[in-house]
UniProtKB/TrEMBL annotation:
Signal peptide (UniProt feature, chain positions): none
Name of the protein in its database record: Carbohydrate kinase
Keywords noted in UniProt: Kinase, Transferase
CDD domains in alphabetical order: ASKHA_NBD_FGGY_BaXK-like
Region called Disordered, residue ranges: 249-270
């Protein structure tokens, strides 16, 4: 049935998804038929301040308000209607990290993002204590490291949350969190769909010995599963979101989720034996498990779907940043010689050139796309590094191909643990992210790298915020389906546009040759990390 978008805007039936990603904050308005009505975005970058990667809360709100204002203007221009009422709102953001607040709601230290490799001691101790992998990114690792560092702010912590949880709290007044995002804060018990009580008791005992008597359960936000109502937009929240003051309060709020949860939702990858890959500033793969892992792996996170099902997650701190940096440099050159190519056109031109004229192994070149440290390869600090031998086939096609190869390299190393050591397989692996906006090229390289078919959907470049909007719609329509998986199958992805690339044996062999060179050269990258950063703030 064809919907009338103007009527849905007037009647307040649309839903809003907001996602705070690593390089962009985006707001997407979606109609009841799950199509995008309008969107707005704001570009931002993390800053390295006093040794920590961070974003300021001031820019968080400036970015959200700018994105919403752009979306609202697009609605007015396209449909001639003012956006004053929204049925449901969902907030998503990059997972993990550390946002501790005191009892007055004041942030105690600047936001420490997932990108910080500063909690190795805490992560190792907690992994041993729990017999469960605690990555450096997780909120509990950041908290415990602050305790080990004897940071004075810890005794004042009253509430600890993620970026999505913080924004949701400010919009709704509710200190809750989607269970997928919660699983990046503290281990989840699959049976109770809550934090693991045994592990919380162990943590409380551990910190009590160190002189801290708080209960971790009292600091963490309450987990909610997809479809549960997570409060409503307050008057204060509406004014904070829409600076014009026109937006009405009362919108249903969906549980705030991490970008992993929205990625799974936006690619219909929440069922067992499905998986997805998100490629952005960081990269991560999510495989919904149909069997437990045989042992604890430091490079495999155990998180959950938005409904609490166990997921094996391979997370890398670096993916597209180095590609983007080189493209920026090449854009400067093209402008210098008078080219009128847009950035997107330049990406397409160079990616296709790499695919058509590059050697299968990228000509013997090697690149380490480490803007920050990388846990999977045990590199503590970021030092992007390009290496070639005297006999490498050094040309533009191979250079660009090497950049794409290196974007996926840490993910390849982590995924090999799942596929080769744990014998975990999937029925479908769906990729999303801006790297796939140029058709086929990065998709085929990823298929060859992982030696598995890779599917990309038509919304590959916009999956996250749209996925959050779908979770908000599911909150309104939970009674219409027995589960999120069924809702996605029966109402959202009825006839999705998609394309699949299967591994090319020659491409697989070429990427395998590249990754062997990559591994052999890692000591050079580790050494490069010792070079002082002269411009470090």
């Amino acid at each position: 049935m064809t919907i009338n978008v103007n009527e849905e805007i007037i009647d307040g039936k649309t839903v809003l998804g907001i996602e705070l990603g690593s390089t962009r904050i985006k707001a997407v308005l979606v109609a009841t038929d799950h199509t995008v009505v309008a969107s707005g975005s704001y570009a931002w970058e993390n800053q390295l301040v006093d040794g920590y990667w961070t974003y300021s809360l001031e820019e968080v709100w400036h970015g959200i308000q700018s994105s919403y204002a752009e979306l609202k203007a697009a609605v007015q221009e396209k449909y001639g209607e003012s956006l004053v009422k929204i049925a449901a709102i969902g907030v998503s953001a990059m997972m993990h990290g550390y946002l501790p607040f005191d009892q007055d709601g004041q942030l105690l230290v600047p936001f420490r993002t997932w990108r910080n490799n500063s909690t190795a001691e805490a992560a190792t101790q907690l992994t041993q204590l729990f017999n469960f992998n605690i990555p450096q990114r997780w909120s509990i690792a950041h908290l415990y490291q602050a305790i080990l560092n004897q940071e004075t702010h810890v005794k004042s912590v009253d509430f600890l949350t993620t970026l999505a949880g913080y924004v949701h709290w400010q919009l709704s007044g509710q200190k809750v969190i989607g269970i997928g995002d919660a699983s990046g804060m503290f281990p989840i018990d699959e049976a109770s769909l809550n934090y693991d009580e045994d592990k919380m008791e162990k943590f409380n005992h551990l910190i009590k010995v160190l002189g801290y008597d708080f209960d971790i359960a009292q600091l963490l936000p309450r987990p909610l599963i997809a479809g549960e109502v997570a409060g409503h937009l307050t008057n204060e929240g509406a004014r904070r979101l829409d600076m014009s003051g026109e937006l009405q309060s009362g919108s249903v709020m969906a549980p705030p989720e991490g970008d992993a949860g929205t990625g799974m939702t936006g690619t219909n990858s929440v069922k067992k034996r499905t998986g997805n890959i998100s490629a952005g500033t960081s990269a991560f793969s999510m495989v919904v498990l149909d069997q437990p892992l045989a042992k604890v792996h430091r490079d495999i996170d155990l998180v959950t779907t938005p409904e609490g099902a166990p997921v094996a997650m391979v997370h890398t701190n670096n993916c597209t940043s180095d590609v983007n940096a080189w493209m920026k440099l090449l854009t400067e050159f093209s402008q210098l010689i008078g080219s009128t190519f847009s950035v997107d056109q330049l990406y397409a031109k160079l990616f296709n050139h790499a695919a058509e004229d590059g050697d299968e192994d990228a000509g013997g070149l090697v690149n380490y796309a480490y803007l920050s440290g990388e846990n999977i390869t045990n590199v503590e600090e970021g030092r992007p590094l390009f290496v070639r031998t005297p006999n490498s086939h050094f040309n533009l096609a191979n250079f660009i191909k090497t950049q794409i190869f290196s974007a996926f390299a840490p993910l390849k190393i982590g995924m090999d643990i799942l596929t080769k050591e744990e014998q975990i397989s999937t029925d479908v692996l769906i990729a999303q992210g801006g790297l796939f906006r140029t058709p086929v090229v990065a998709q085929q390289i990823l298929a060859d790298a992982l030696n598995t078919p890779i599917t990309v959907m038509a919304n590959a470049g916009e999956g996250g915020p749209w996925g959050m909007a779908i979770l908000a719609q599911y909150t309104l329509n939970r009674d219409s389906a027995s589960s999120l998986a069924n809702y996605l199958d029966e109402q959202v992805f009825v006839s999705p546009e998609r394309s699949t690339c299967t591994p090319n044996p020659v491409g697989v062999q070429g990427y395998d040759a590249f990754i062997e060179r990559y591994k052999l050269g890692l000591p050079a990258e580790v050494t490069a990390a010792k070079i002082p950063d002269a411009h470090k703030k």
